[in-house]
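User: Could you go from structure to sequence for me? I need the amino acid at each position, not a summary. Structure tokens:
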């Protein structure tokens, strides 16, 4: 089992009884806390029209987090590129990299990060997405290149900067693209686990070296809910379960506090659907988390594991990341 980095995925979750300002302050607090624990990177994800998620202006929020931290890499997990002009994203991330040199990542996805009606409001054309997304990635690479200095359209800031690109995915389509372009690959195992193993196999088998990367680099995102005891961890995880029930029900309300018994909340069919989607959710005390991390890594052999943790109480969320760090470190003690 090879060693692996651990990182953080944050959605700036909005909690019942709390403001969006509170969400942003909690995100900064989490970034500071995990930076001190030597987490590798802190990514924020673009979502729209959801009362429970406040990371819609992702580039702005990345700047806020990077400004409040010192060394942790900060980036997007991801920017939903067909929602935007490639030039605007190049300029935004060129600005971020110029402000925070050597600390900015640009993770890119093709999904809308929202519902169909909101996707229309964002100006997306679903008929051309599969063609548009790869083309936009090539446009970004051109705008970031030194060779673009003689072009009629230039990204300033952005031109000539080393901003690593990552391809995000929740299906095998993105694996083929990441392999073809020779870019690192991040998979959304925290909500779409069904094709993860197949996607990793495709990516590894078909990877073509590039200027950015000479061999495959895989980042897997999972859910983690850790606590001092198993019982507490399972209770804390009911916030995550309720959030997924709300997705099933198309109810976008803010995140709910934990409950004593999920059977009072979900139907048997909903339970089955949610547990399938949350297959890679590590719940437990430190020893249980360590065993689950070990089992996952022995199966998937990833380079990096990104942890998403939906816990209602902010201090308990911090504690969870602390326990996960200790659990991971325990696997590789000398």
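Assistant: Here is the amino acid at each position, in order:
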């Amino acid at each position: 089992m090879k060693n692996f980095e651990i990182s953080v995925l944050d959605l700036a979750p909005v909690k019942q009884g709390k403001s969006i300002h509170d969400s942003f302050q909690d995100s900064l607090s989490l970034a500071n806390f995990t930076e001190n624990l030597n987490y590798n990177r802190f990514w924020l994800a673009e979502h729209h029209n959801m009362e429970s998620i406040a990371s819609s202006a992702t580039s702005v929020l990345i700047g806020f987090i990077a400004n409040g931290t010192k060394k942790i890499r900060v980036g997007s997990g991801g920017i939903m590129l067909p929602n935007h002009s490639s030039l605007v994203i190049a300029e935004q991330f060129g600005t971020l990299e110029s402000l925070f040199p050597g600390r900015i990542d640009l993770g890119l996805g093709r999904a809308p990060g929202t519902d169909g009606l909101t996707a229309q409001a964002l100006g997306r054309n679903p008929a051309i997405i599969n063609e548009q997304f790869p083309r936009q990635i090539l446009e970004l690479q051109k705008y970031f290149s030194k060779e673009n200095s003689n072009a009629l359209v230039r990204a300033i800031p952005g031109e000539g900067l080393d901003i690593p690109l990552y391809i995000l995915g929740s299906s095998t389509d993105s694996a083929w693209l990441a392999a073809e372009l020779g870019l690192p690959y991040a998979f959304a195992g925290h909500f779409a686990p069904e094709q993860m193993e197949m996607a990793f196999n495709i990516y590894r088998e078909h990877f073509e070296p590039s200027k950015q990367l000479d061999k495959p680099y895989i980042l897997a995102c999972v859910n983690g809910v850790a606590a001092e005891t198993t019982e507490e961890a399972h209770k804390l995880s009911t916030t995550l379960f309720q959030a997924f029930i709300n997705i099933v029900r198309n109810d976008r309300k803010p995140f709910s506090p934990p409950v004593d018994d999920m059977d009072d909340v979900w139907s048997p069919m909903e339970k089955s659907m949610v547990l399938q989607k949350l297959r890679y959710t590590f719940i437990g005390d430190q020893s249980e988390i360590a065993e689950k991390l070990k089992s996952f890594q022995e199966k998937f052999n990833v380079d990096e594991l990104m942890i998403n943790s939906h816990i209602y109480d902010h201090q308990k969320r911090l504690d969870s990341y602390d326990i996960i760090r200790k659990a991971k470190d325990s696997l590789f003690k000398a």
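One structural detail worth keeping in mind: The chain has twelve helices and nine strands.
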